[in-house]
Structure prediction request, 215 residues.
Amino acid sequence: MKKSILLASLLALCLSASAQTLDRMQWFNEPESWEIKDNVLTMDVTPQSDYWRISHYGFTVDDAPFLYTTRGGEFEVKVKISGEYKVRFDQAGLMLRIDKENYIKTGIEYVDGKYNLSAVVTHHTSDWSVITLDRPVPYIWIKAVRRLDAVEVFYSFDDKEYIMMRNAPLQDNSPVMVGLMAACPDGQGFKAKFENFTIKHLPDQRRVEWLEKNQ
Prediction:
């Protein structure tokens, strides 16, 4: 009985969310102009920048701004995103990245005057899925949950009701760079804003199941 109570207490402690301190994170492709104030990141997104590998378009690029921390194991990450999107393919969101050939980027992407919920999953080559919104939105919440060998991606308009938009594979038991990404493949840059960025540790699912069976 005591072991069960202790296990439950440890799980509750691990599941508590806290804001990740942005100024302790690091840049990959640091933009020329950015600011962190009250744990809110604003940036002028680098013109002519993106993340994409090979498929459909025939080129590979890996040069957009990405502010990240490194996490091992399983976790939940979410952020509130807004931007002054201007031209085709302007985008802002989360990215989970193992290396240049294995990453997931997801958020808002502006295409032909429409706001799209976007997810690019790359394992050597990239794919792209979108959900077109029927109207512009001032901001969007994006949440990603890494469990075992997959990542579930969700969106919300109010940080209360979340709807899943993608389930994609990502190698488990491997450290991952996770953080805030924006790109401007087709324009001269735009302003992007990231608020309420949090990462919540999730206890390893296989280990939890083992502990429950071996109390």
